[in-house]
Write a structure and sequence with these properties.
By secondary structure, this protein is α/β, with parallel strands linked by helices. Helix content is about 45%, strand content about 15%. The protein has 16 helices and twelve strands. α6 runs parallel beside α8.
Length: about 400
């Protein structure tokens, strides 16, 4: 029996340097999701950011609505909605509407908010963001199930609140909580029995915390009468693959340094190496990124599986390290040569080929006997004297035979 397929997708913040047209950048993000849909990727998660100029999408819901019109099967998630920035009823209403207009293709990723500068502009204390996320989840889940909620908080209020439409997906849309290194996301996921998005799974701290965070989530789930499902666990990490390692390195020379500068100077995630050496060497050596071939990507996923104990989906942390054409090539190579190794797509093909090869003598003997019988039947009906010489020669015969 075949096991579950590892799903593949992308976590699209997105990251766009300041030297290009932002309108074209957003359009290219939509083109990427369309490409992923054609290549058979399972999921795309879209970020929410409001400052720092690099991560351009302010409303993942607007992006998802647009992408849903242009795609057929790929599922689309908020990656993630920053809960302290929204009144829970308004956010739940938008997600529920997407659930209907996408016919169940939407997913709801939640988190506290990644950029402190976003929180500062809205007067949200950074040290309150995780507490507010937890409080928002407590009311969002019943709202999305169609229940009525009354709740009074120091930052929002709900009075007999409920959504006008029952959910399209029952009991509600799929929900996942973002997790980095700290146990905050794992605790929230376990408390509510929802999915886990390990955004820094390949970063040293995040990688080391994979098994412990999953254990924390299971512990919390048990304490609250819930269960955790590894299929709903998504690990995120950056990759760029090419035909050779040398080609991959050449590709990322286009934009990797700009991405590194953003993480060194602005972003809150400690992803960029700071040892002063070759950043490509450092990122590969630490396991943070794959910059190489499909075989290197396969090795990375096997490493993650061993460390985590098993997960349901791998999401490429989308970046713009390479020119657009080479970036598309990377996504295609991963779909063609990496995903099949973790989805058992070719097991029956391999078994069928081996069976046909091992039984070739028998099959060829039967085929030759069948041909010989038809030749004999034809000669019996026509006689060799009535058959042209070239046909007899092709049959390995002559008029005297």
């Amino acid at each position: 029996m075949l096991g579950a397929k590892l799903r593949f997708g992308a976590f699209i913040a997105p990251f766009h340097p300041l030297d290009e047209n932002p309108t074209m950048a957003l359009e290219r993000d939509l083109d990427l999701v369309c490409l992923m849909d054609k290549l058979g990727y399972d999921e795309a998660w879209i970020g929410e950011h409001h400052s720092a100029g690099y991560e351009l999408i302010a409303s993942p819901e607007l992006f998802i609505a647009t992408a849903a019109e242009r795609t057929k099967t790929i599922r689309l998630g908020t990656g993630v909605s920053s809960l302290p920035y929204h009144h829970p009823l308004m956010l739940a209403d938008r997600i529920n509407q997407l659930d209907h207009i996408t016919r169940g293709r939407v997913m709801f990723g939640v988190g506290p908010g990644a950029l402190p500068s976003d929180a500062f502009m809205m007067g949200i204390p950074v040290d309150k963001q995780r507490d507010r996320m937890d409080e928002a989840i407590d009311v969002l889940l019943p709202l999305l199930r169609g229940e009525t909620v009354t709740h009074k908080s120091d930052w929002f209020e709900l009075n007999e609140a409920r959504l006008q439409m029952t959910p399209y997906t029952r009991p509600s849309v799929e929900i996942a909580v973002a997790s980095q290194v700290s146990p905050t996301g794992a605790r929230a996921a376990g408390k509510h029995g929802v999915g886990l998005l390990s955004i820094g799974a390949t970063q040293t701290g995040g990688f080391n915390a994979l098994s412990s965070n999953w254990a924390i989530a299971e512990e919390q789930a048990a304490a609250h009468g819930k269960t955790m499902n590894r299929s709903a666990w998504r690990l995120v990490g950056p990759m760029h693959v090419a035909e050779t390692r040398e080609q991959a390195r050449a590709d990322v020379g286009f934009g990797l340094q700009k991405w590194l500068n953003y993480f060194l100077e602005v972003a809150a995630l400690p992803l960029a190496p700071q040892d002063g050496g070759d950043p490509v060497d450092a990122m590969i050596a630490s396991g943070l990124a794959v910059i190489g071939t499909p075989e290197d990507a396969i090795a990375q996923l096997e490493r993650l599986e061993k460390q985590s104990g098993g997960y349901g989906a791998f999401l490429l942390m989308d970046h713009n390290w390479a020119p657009w054409a080479r970036k598309q090539n990377s996504y295609e190579m991963i779909a063609r040569y990496v995903a099949p190794q973790f989805q058992a797509l070719n097991e029956n093909r391999a078994a069928s080929l081996a069976w046909a090869r091992d039984n070739r003598p028998t099959f060829m003997g039967q085929a030759m006997m069948a041909v010989g019988a038809r030749v004999a039947q034809h000669i019996q009906e026509k006689g060799t004297e009535n058959i042209r010489p070239e046909i007899l020669e092709a049959m390995g015969m002559n008029k005297k035979t």
